[in-house]
Specification:
- Helix content is about 25%, strand content about 25%.
- Helix 6 runs parallel beside helix 7.
- By secondary structure, it is α/β, with parallel strands linked by helices.
- The strands form four sheets. Strands 3, 5, 6, 9, 10, 17 and 18 form a seven-stranded mixed sheet that branches. Strands 13-12-11-14-15-16 form a six-stranded parallel sheet, with helices on both faces.
Length: about 350
């Protein structure tokens, strides 16, 4: 079968590899129907050191179950499924508390001997706890939105949920990428009164307005902070959802948030040290939250919203490529010629 690997910064290739197969009785093999490139895939695309082996890529997919291990119940060959971007048993103490990305028996696609999802097929460990069945015969027009339940929309939802977005709140979203736009949509769904989107790409912020943004701020840094404060009568935002992951976005977040507010981060941080002292968080009694989204905890809740047409998060996809052209998808997203790209094996 064919699968995508990254061999270094900017070096993405599709290679012939052995077919995916069961390793453990808790595994399943899934034929990938739709996958995509994630914004987080662009971090190693910029900075990864060269390697001879390559790293399997892709962690978001819809697919059809082809084979299940002897201990897997509730799934059978032919089932149409969506997978969270991290696998989990859905039964350990952390899963029961809703933090599946910390599962005691879980892990990540593309690591630890597990293949990536930008491929023709993938082995899914802990399949019974990980995979969620989609009703048979669902309209193919809904597939892109269903694919967002694997990561991007529910990462935006996680940001809003952890930020305690609710009616009466003003929310500021930093970043007009697919996760930021998803955070706008999730904040609207959770009833936020005002949603300020910080981004400067008009085609993206226009979609953000359609998703529910009431204001758009194109300025960055101190100028952007001042603009948000002007929009909020000098008080700042109850909730700031940071969907970028770089230090300037974090600095912007604590400059915008109002006293007693919440900064919720879901952009994968490209730093380990960050201000938390009196002038940033402590002095204003700010709560800092967020992290890798346990999307498995949210899929069943979000699935009816997609199937019944209440939301259309799949609008973040603006291009589709076949597997042979997956490197073009990375280049298009990196150059901002595309927002988020579907990969159709």
């Amino acid at each position: 079968m064919r699968a995508t690997f990254m061999f270094g910064a900017g070096d993405v290739r599709v290679e012939d590899v052995p077919d995916a197969k069961l390793h453990e009785p808790t595994d399943a093999v899934v034929r990938v129907v739709l996958a995509c490139v994630c914004g987080s895939d662009l971090h190693p695309y910029h900075s990864m050191s060269p390697t001879d082996e390559g790293v399997p890529m892709g962690h978001e997919f819809l697919g059809v179950v082809e084979e299940v291990g002897a201990q897997v119940t509730g799934l059978a060959p032919g089932d149409f499924v969506v997978s969270p971007f991290a696998f989990s048993d859905n039964t350990c103490a952390f899963c029961r508390e809703g933090f599946h990305t910390a599962c005691a028996h879980g892990g990540w696609y593309g690591a630890g001997g597990v293949g990536g999802a930008q491929a023709e097929a993938v082995r899914v460990p802990q399949a019974e706890g990980t995979l969620v069945k989609i009703p048979a015969g669902v309209d193919e027009a809904l597939w892109p939105s269903l694919l967002t339940l694997s990561d991007v929309y529910l990462t935006g939802w996680h940001a809003a949920h952890m930020g305690r977005v609710a009616p009466g709140r003003t929310v500021t979203v930093i970043g007009d990428g697919a996760v930021g736009l998803s955070a706008v949509l999730a904040s609207k769904r959770l009833g936020a009164d005002r949603i300020i989107l910080m981004g400067r790409h008009t085609d993206r912020t226009n979609l953000g307005r359609e998703f529910g943004a009431t204001d758009v701020v194109a300025e960055r840094g101190d100028e952007g902070i001042a603009k948000v404060r002007d929009l909020t009568a000098g008080e700042g935002s109850h909730v700031v959802l940071e969907a970028v992951g770089h230090m300037p976005a974090y600095e912007q977040a604590y400059g915008i948030v109002r006293p007693g507010g919440v900064v919720s981060r879901v952009g994968v941080p490209q730093y380990e040290q960050a201000p938390v002292g009196f002038g940033s968080l402590f002095g204003k009694n700010i709560t800092l939250t967020g992290g890798p989204a346990p999307v498995r905890a949210y899929i069943e809740q979000a699935l009816p919203d997609v199937l019944e047409g209440r939301i259309e998060p799949g609008r973040v996809f603006d291009r589709t490529v076949d597997l042979d052209h997956v490197a073009d998808a990375y280049q298009a997203m990196d150059s901002r010629q595309a927002l988020k790209v579907i990969v159709r094996p």
